[in-house]
């Protein structure tokens, strides 16, 4: 391999140094320009700092323009002047900087590039010196430029400018870009320099949606904004735009339409535009040929509501039609109705509807944009359609006026069945009159005949007066209006004969519930009035129900009522809670509780039973309750006996005297006496005692004898057997009670208000509580945990037992 000659190596070193010197000289030029331009940069920075602080937006137009011209022209002149006076670096300056940055001495770069004339014989010495300098120069590093202004700005005034820019950026926030842009566009006329644009979309009120603020860039470009996600808004939203500034009136481009703004004064512009076209996809605001804002748009059409039957309508215990339906709409339903069309007599479920129809406005159908399952009660027993097959169609209307309908459903309307003979006759007369109003006058003889049979309705003067009034009304007028009025009289008379004032009280309570529901949307005064009226009607309803139930529920021979009376306190509490909820703005919770109260009222019924059955039920209930406490006390005595037996064994091993069982024997005798009282109470009530009670009595007697003989193990065996037998007997009594309740007319073991009868489990009924603060299961669990604590005192244990019995 041929080695490179010293001459070639020297040329390469020169070339490498030349490139480094070029870079160093560029750094020196940059330093010179930096030192010459820093005053101009400070002036421009101060100008922009004032812009960020909003000074130029508040200053008069001529001041802004003058300062802008001064900054531009003065800055340019100052920069030119300082650049002309600057001393520009040469090649020697670059060599000295490179040597200085590498810490080299004796100017090695000059030695590399020099070629002095020498006498013969000295070239060898020169080459050695040059090679030595070249080796030193080729390792010299190129360092960064020295952009320092310590000598040019010894007072550090530049820091003030930087601090002002920082404070201005914080002050301007997101508006910093716009203010800097406006600073570069000084005004040349009387129009304001800044164009302020505020825009928002206000959805229709019925949607319940909040206004949408539109953020659009000033002088937007279509290429930029079309790629953005479109704004979603309901059809019918109102676009409101306020624009201040500019010399020309702006316009709104909405699809193919161009809508001018309303101008107030010279620079204030306003526009309100309804977005009713669902195909509109772009909004743009232009002013003087400049795009001020651009928004892609996606308008969402309002969908029609949907409504359907959740189940076939049923009949409540008070003969009202119970209708359950599901309704849904994107923004909520305002009204719902039920249309009933009777099928021709003898038609099947698939028959053709007749011409007559009945429209019923459904209460409480207002929703707020989510699917809702609603329940409504309608008493149609007095309508001519009662008992007939009808075709039913549900309709729902939203705030936009759109209507949705359900599929047709065929079912039979509830019909009241009367048991009183005169009531049956009056209802038949009424039905014939309403079916054929033209021949209604022929029914006057039937009315006259029924009214004269005073014994048939026990000589009730009110019934007599009503029937005679209907008779003379039909004799004097046989028009359709008269027929309808007479039909109403006959229906009310039949109800009076059937259940006295109960039907009137039921109807009054229904009206009070409807008025209270309407008052939920009204003011506080109307709500108070509706609450007072509802409480009064509820009390009247309960009184009539108690009177009706007293005719069938037994009375004790000693005159004291033994049946469980309707709980008016609970219902009054529900009414007060509804009023408080409505006053607090919790309308949904108040309506939910109102639906529960309506369910209770519509399904209330008076249970009938014989006196013997009732006495047996109450005896079993009292016995089950007493056995629960007796079992707990027997278990406690068992624990005490076990503890004393263990202590006696320890004392026997240690040679100490043993303790006696006399006090425990006395307690055991007391428990046996309590069990004997329970057995006697069952016998007095005509209830056969479960077999477990006899076993428990025998086990208690064995335990008592063992305690009297000071035999702890024998007493423990007897007491454990007694606890087991008592628990079995209590379970047997509860099962007998449940079977008895299932055989009652209500069929579900509940009292007239849907609550469990005496001795039954209370978990099946939930008292409405708006704050969920009274949860029966949690209370029961907490009470059970506390009563199981062996360290409780007798007084506290008895108190917890009373609480458990309450719940």
TrEMBL record:
Name the coiled-coil region(s).
513-540
Do the record's keywords include Coiled coil?
Answer: yes
Pfam families with a match to the protein in the record:
DUF4175 (PF13779)
Q: Keywords in UniProt for this one?
A: Coiled coil, Membrane, Transmembrane, Transmembrane helix
Q: What InterPro entries would the database entry show?
A: CHP02302_TM (IPR012683)
* Membrane-crossing segments per the record: 21-49, 61-80, 156-173
The domain of life is: Bacteria
Iron-sulfur is among the record's keywords: no
Under which name does UniProt file this protein?
TIGR02302 family protein
């Amino acid at each position: 391999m041929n080695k490179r000659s010293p001459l070639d190596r020297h040329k390469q070193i020169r070339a490498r140094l030349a490139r480094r010197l070029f870079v160093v000289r560029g750094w020196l030029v940059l330093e010179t320009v930096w030192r010459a331009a820093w005053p101009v940069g400070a002036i421009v920075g101060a100008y922009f700092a004032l812009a960020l602080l909003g000074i130029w937006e508040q200053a008069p137009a001529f001041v802004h323009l003058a300062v802008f011209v001064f900054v531009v022209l003065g800055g340019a002149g100052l920069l030119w002047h300082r650049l002309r006076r600057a001393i520009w670096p040469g090649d020697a300056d670059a060599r000295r900087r490179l040597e200085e940055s590498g810490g080299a001495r004796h100017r090695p770069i000059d030695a590399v590039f020099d070629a002095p004339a020498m006498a013969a014989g000295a070239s060898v010495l020169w080459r050695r010196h040059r090679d030595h300098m070249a080796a030193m120069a080729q390792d010299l590093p190129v360092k960064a430029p020295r952009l320092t202004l310590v000598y040019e700005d010894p007072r550090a005034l530049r820091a003030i400018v930087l601090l002002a820019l920082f404070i201005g950026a914080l002050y301007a926030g997101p508006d910093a870009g716009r203010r800097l842009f406006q600073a570069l566009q000084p005004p040349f006329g009387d129009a304001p320099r800044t164009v302020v644009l505020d825009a928002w979309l206000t959805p229709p009120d019925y949607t319940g949606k909040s206004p949408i603020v539109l953020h659009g860039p000033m002088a937007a470009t279509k290429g930029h904004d079309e790629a953005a996600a479109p704004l979603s808004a309901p059809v019918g939203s109102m676009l409101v735009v306020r624009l201040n500034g500019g010399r020309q009136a702006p316009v709104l481009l909405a699809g193919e339409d161009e809508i001018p703004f309303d101008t107030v004064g010279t620079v204030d512009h306003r526009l309100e535009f309804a977005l009713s076209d669902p195909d509109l996809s772009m909004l743009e605001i232009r002013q003087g040929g400049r795009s001020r804002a651009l928004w892609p748009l996606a308008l969402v059409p309002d969908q029609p509501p949907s409504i359907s039957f959740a189940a076939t309508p049923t009949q409540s215990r008070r003969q009202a039609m119970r209708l359950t339906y599901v309704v849904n709409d994107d923004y909520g339903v305002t009204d719902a109705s039920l249309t009933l069309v009777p099928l021709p007599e003898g038609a099947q479920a698939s028959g053709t509807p007749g011409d007559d129809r009945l429209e019923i406005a459904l209460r409480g159908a207002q929703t707020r944009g989510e699917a809702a399952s609603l329940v409504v009660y309608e008493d149609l027993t007095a309508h001519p359609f009662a008992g007939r097959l009808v075709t039913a169609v549900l309709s729902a209307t939203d705030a936009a006026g759109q209507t949705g309908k359900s599929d047709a459903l065929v079912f039979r309307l509830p019909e009241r069945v009367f048991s009183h003979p005169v009531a049956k006759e009056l209802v038949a007369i009424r039905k014939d009159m309403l079916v054929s109003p033209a021949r209604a006058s022929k029914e006057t003889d039937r009315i006259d005949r029924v009214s004269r049979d005073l014994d048939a309705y026990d000589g009730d003067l009110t019934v007599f007066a009503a029937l005679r009034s209907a008779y003379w009304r039909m004799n004097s007028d046989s028009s359709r209006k008269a027929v309808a009025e007479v039909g109403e009289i006959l229906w009310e008379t039949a109800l009076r004969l059937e259940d006295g004032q109960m039907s009137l009280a039921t109807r009054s309570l229904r009206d009070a519930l409807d008025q209270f529901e309407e008052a939920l949307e009204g003011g506080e005064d109307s709500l108070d009035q509706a609450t007072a009226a509802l409480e009064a009607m509820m009390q009247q309803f309960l009184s009539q129900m108690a009177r009706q139930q007293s005719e069938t529920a037994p009375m004790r021979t000693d005159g004291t009522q033994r049946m469980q009376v309707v709980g008016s306190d609970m219902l009054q509490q529900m009414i007060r809670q509804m009023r408080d909820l409505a006053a607090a703005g919790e309308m949904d919770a108040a309506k939910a509780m109102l639906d529960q109260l309506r369910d209770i009222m519509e399904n209330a019924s008076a249970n009938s039973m014989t006196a013997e059955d009732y006495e047996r039920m109450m005896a079993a209930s009292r016995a089950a309750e007493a056995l629960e406490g007796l079992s707990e006390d027997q278990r406690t005595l068992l624990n005490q006996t076990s503890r004393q037996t263990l202590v006696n064994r320890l004392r026997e091993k240690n040679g100490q005297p043993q303790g006696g069982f006399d006090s425990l024997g006395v307690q055991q005798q007391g428990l046996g006496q309590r069990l004997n009282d329970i057995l006697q109470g069952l016998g007095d009530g005509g209830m056969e005692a479960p077999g477990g009670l006899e076993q428990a009595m025998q086990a208690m007697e064995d335990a008592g004898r063992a305690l009297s003989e000071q035999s702890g193990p024998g007493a423990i065996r007897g007491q454990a057997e007694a606890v087991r037998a008592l628990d079995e007997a209590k379970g047997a009594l509860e099962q007998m009670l449940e079977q008895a309740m299932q055989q009652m007319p209500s069929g579900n073991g509940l009292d007239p208000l849907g609550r469990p009868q005496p001795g039954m489990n209370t978990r099946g009924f939930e008292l409405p509580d708006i704050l969920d603060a009274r949860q029966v299961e949690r209370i029961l669990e907490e009470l059970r945990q506390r009563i199981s604590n062996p360290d409780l005192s007798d007084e506290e244990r008895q108190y917890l037992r009373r609480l458990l019995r309450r719940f």
